[in-house]
Amino acid sequence: MTKTVYQPGDLRVDAKRINATLHETCEIGAAHRWGPGEIETGMCRLALSDEDKEVRDWFTAELKRLGCNVVVDAMGNMFGIRPGKKEGAPTAMGSHLDTQPTGGRYDGILGVMAAIEVLRVLKDNNIETEYPVAAVTWTNEEGARFPTSMFGSGVWADVLPLEQSYALADIHNPKATVKSELERIGYLGDAPCSYKDTELGAHFELHIEQGPILEREEKKVGVVIGGQGYRWFDVVVQGRDSHAGTTPLQMRSDAMLVAARIIAAANDVAVKHDGLATTGIISLEPGSINTVAKTVNFSMDIRHMNDDKLEEMDKDLRARADEICRGAARGCTVEWNKLSAFPVTKFHESCVDAIRAAAEFSVGKDLVRDIYSGAGHDSCQTALHCPTGMIFVPCKDGLSHNPEEWCTAEDCALGTQVLLDAVMAYDAQRQS
Amino acid sequence: MTKTVYQPGDLRVDAKRINATLHETCEIGAAHRWGPGEIETGMCRLALSDEDKEVRDWFTAELKRLGCNVVVDAMGNMFGIRPGKKEGAPTAMGSHLDTQPTGGRYDGILGVMAAIEVLRVLKDNNIETEYPVAAVTWTNEEGARFPTSMFGSGVWADVLPLEQSYALADIHNPKATVKSELERIGYLGDAPCSYKDTELGAHFELHIEQGPILEREEKKVGVVIGGQGYRWFDVVVQGRDSHAGTTPLQMRSDAMLVAARIIAAANDVAVKHDGLATTGIISLEPGSINTVAKTVNFSMDIRHMNDDKLEEMDKDLRARADEICRGAARGCTVEWNKLSAFPVTKFHESCVDAIRAAAEFSVGKDLVRDIYSGAGHDSCQTALHCPTGMIFVPCKDGLSHNPEEWCTAEDCALGTQVLLDAVMAYDAQRQS
């Protein structure tokens, strides 16, 4: 390396190696076979389980072999830091090693394995970066076993309180808390869990898209420019139960009719504002075929790429719901219980530019697309405290959180190359 | 009695006695106390339970005391037949003694106790009717313990097969079938269960409205001119589950959105045709707040007072559902599984006229109203084979199938007087 500034493609990832390592480590927690091929299974590697411990042990050993200093913090987040020419916060490459109970082999895992591959390329080529570079795995991104997603990065980012996260219990075993399980598997680290103590210079994350856009538009790389803001509600419609045969329509307070109209209206509101609205849970009482529903509970998930528009959608939807209650189904009331909310994330221009340049170098402008992340990611937490960027690669049919989740070997390697090039360019730019 | 033709009011019921007897027998199976008063409880007297046996024993003894011949048929339907001047099929007064698990004191019970009161009045006044008169209780009208409603009268009417009804099991105990429970409580009768073997000359039924119309319109008696036809469906919408954050609206096959639109459309269709449409049950899969629903199952209950209009509603609704599937939520399919259907019942002019005349005599034209029965009743089965009529009295807030179901003592007595006058007039008219 005699050039002063890194150019994309100066270093090349080993396409076979990244895929081989990904699938080798997926033997830890492989589950839900769906085809005869060696890698045709899904994953069940729940946060802080025995399988999580096993893959963390592998991660630790590999990081040490690659010359990294391994830091484990109080939430079990792991940082493998490879020194650079100068001291300073590392340019991090992070994602997560835990999966959904019926998860796939790419969600999170690809990002961590790609980081390992980048470190291997640096070692193989005896590269000394300007600043330290790190591979990171964040604890319990999925929120599947302990029901809060992204809590490792959330505590680090000071979005969630440490003690509250420690107290969370396994959804199937109230005796197994986050803290007791961190202790049990030996990953309750010494380092305080905070962006102030384990500072990051930047955070890059390679991830499968988990949606259908890249595939349908035949793009190879998504340059993620931000994450949608979202609000989650438990909506409760209260009406009055009455006999479905004997109660005239105009004398009903039909909670199910009101709920149906609100769900339909939410879609209209989302279309109008170019956002998203989804109802994924619903239940009603008393639940008899010939009884008008008294109470309906349903979830409402609204999302937008612009916080002001999200607020407008929220107001618009509540106004529509009030109107619906005043309408045909008189006497019904609607209550909005906010379960959680996350503002819009804007990724950092310097990271986004480095990723875009790297992607365009690898596959050409036409196969690259700016994209918003619809799902939450650890990068949405790191973005609160350091320059952050994400790379999306396509996944088959947009399918994720499913054993058949699939990203081609070619796309896994391509995403890793983009990560390598973006991180190297970013490191060089930190210098210049 | 020297008159040749009975005139309404010639005989009078004992208002205190009918109410006293109703509430005395409600001590068998009283449950769900909701107030401090003696009669401020609901009922739990499930079909073929120990409590049902106890009240049947009381009914048998009282019928015998009143000079009736008691016939029990193969479904446990009980006919207490008081001889008249001539032989022939009796003019029956029937309803049911079983209740919902959280039922009230009037639904069904009022009709049977009113029949007893009529027989008492006839005995007290040494009346010899032209034809026999009978008090009837039909088995398992509610369908609460054994999940088919009106099956006693349904088998009698040849609408349901006997063996199929015998095989039905207690919803909580698969070992207790209808047949084994009939045997256990001693009410598996010798008489074949058929309208051909236990012929009825007519069937009159006094019942609470179970709806809000009479009360809201301040009417005292409803002259029931028929029962609505109804069709029950289990509707299945199949879509595709996808991530609520990453799947653009136009790429979704959102089964919940389709279901919501169909439920809302069903109400529009019902308004348009002046019928009823209700969804009282709904569930979805996979059921996660940030996952677009793959499958939604919901019930659809449509009713109309006219069979042709009911058919039109059915067609209209399916067409609307297909249109909705072709619309925004592409790729969804909808399947209609018919669970049951009952055609419109038209009560017999001679019975309806006798009831109307009796009601108008008691309270005046202004307080009487023609009405359709929204719910199913044993009378809808008997109407298939003999002239049938029903009398409705108001119940508080239209509330039924609820421990707080309430009919005033005055209205119980009024309904019984109308039953007496209608049955006597009908008996006289059979003669003339």
SSE map:
Two copies of one chain form a homodimer.
Chain A: H1 15-25, E1 30-31, E2 42-43, H2 50-65, E3 69-72, E4 78-82, E5 91-95, H3 109-124, E6 133-137, H4 151-156, H5 162-167, E7 169-170, E8 173-177, H6 178-185, E9 202-208, H7 213-216, E10 221-227, E11 229-238, E12 242-243, H8 255-273, E13 276-278, E14 282-285, E15 291-292, E16 295-304, H9 307-326, E17 333-342, E18 345-346, H10 349-363, E19 368-373, H11 378-382, E20 388-393, H12 409-431
Helix pairs in contact in A: 1-3, 1-12, 3-12, 8-9, 10-12
In words, what does this structure look like?
The structure is a homodimer of 432-residue chains. Chain A is an alpha+beta fold and 432 residues long. Chain A has two domains: 15-227 and 344-431, Zn peptidases (Aminopeptidase); 229-342, Alpha-Beta Plaits (2-Layer Sandwich), CATH 3.30.70. Chain A contains twelve helices and 20 strands. Chain A has helices at residues 15-25, 50-65, 109-124, 151-156, 162-167, 178-185, 213-216, 255-273, 307-326, 349-363, 378-382, 409-431, and strands at 30-31, 42-43, 69-72, 78-82, 91-95, 133-137, 169-170, 173-177, 202-208, 221-227, 229-238, 242-243, 276-278, 282-285, 291-292, 295-304, 333-342, 345-346, 368-373, 388-393. In chain A, helix 10 (349-363) crosses helix 12. The first copy, chain A, starts with 14 loop residues before the first helix and ends with a helix. The model of chain A has no long low-confidence stretch (mean pLDDT 95). The interface between A and B is large, with 57 and 57 residues. Chains A, B: Keywords: Hydrolase. Chains A, B: Residues 228-325 form the Peptidase M20 dimerisation domain.
